């Protein structure tokens, strides 16, 4: 039998280490609640150690911590779900807006493409029509040049080399004889001569008839103070205009037909004056054709063709 002092148990926890008691006094006891000769009640000493927490409080604190943790976890989960729902909703709205903008962009690109194609086609059509018109005009010009009187053009070129208003030059003499004279040849010869001189001198004035008219000069056999009688033709016509010769205060009422004839001659003289003054800067051909157009206007007015507003 071992009679030495008891040894410390190496494998047991500190709180459960064996308490040294004399072997010879160790005897059977009930529940280790009593000991003889200094036996220590180990369970009572461990449970009632001063300064230590009661072991029953630990499970309660763990339960509270678990409950709080679960509550926090649930609230955090709900918050995250709400934020995720908001984010998904915003993302969906943005996707819809992007889709709408893509559709608008595609529509605009299609409209722009159609507009570009339409403009290109229209421009191509205009160029084609312009080319056709230019070709037609050139063809007509060539045909006209084939029909034009070379003598008349030669007279015009000679006059253009040294422009003058002398009606005795070959070019103007022809125009006077064929156009100006017949166009200003009215029934009342005396007044016709005065009108012709005023046109040549650029001193004739044509003005519309006012509500109050001035006394008119009487020409032999013709009553001129009546707005219903033309002073040049002597015919009963409604006169919307009157003429004044030079600085005279006398006025003569004229019919629309007489006004158109006088205006046509005045237009011709205005153009040849511009040529004489060097204001027309064109080649001989277009200048000649403009004179021919003005001569045509005098011929039509002489035949009684004139705009209704005249």
Compute the average pLDDT: 79
Proportion in β-strands: under 5%
Quick one: overall form?
A: elongated
Oligomer: single chain
What ranges have pLDDT less than 50 throughout 5 or more consecutive residues? Answer: 8-19, 21-51, 212-216, 218-223
What letter string, H or E per element, gives the SSE order? HHHHHEEEHH
Based on CA atoms alone, the radius of gyration comes out at 64 Å
First CA to last CA: what distance? 163 Å
- Biggest beta sheet attributes: 3 strands, antiparallel
- Coarse structural class: mainly alpha
Name the strands of the widest sheet in spatial order.
1-2-3
Describe the model.
About 17% of the residues have low confidence. The chain has 310 residues and is mainly alpha-helical. A hairpin with a 6-residue loop joins strand 2 and strand 3. It has a three-stranded antiparallel sheet with strand order 1-2-3. The chain has seven helices and three strands, in the order H-H-H-H-H-E-E-E-H-H.
SSE inventory with pairings:
Elements: H1 42-47, H2 57-147, H3 150-161, H4 170-183, H5 189-201, E1 204-208, E2 241-245, E3 252-254, H6 256-276, H7 284-302
Antiparallel strand pairs: 1-2, 2-3
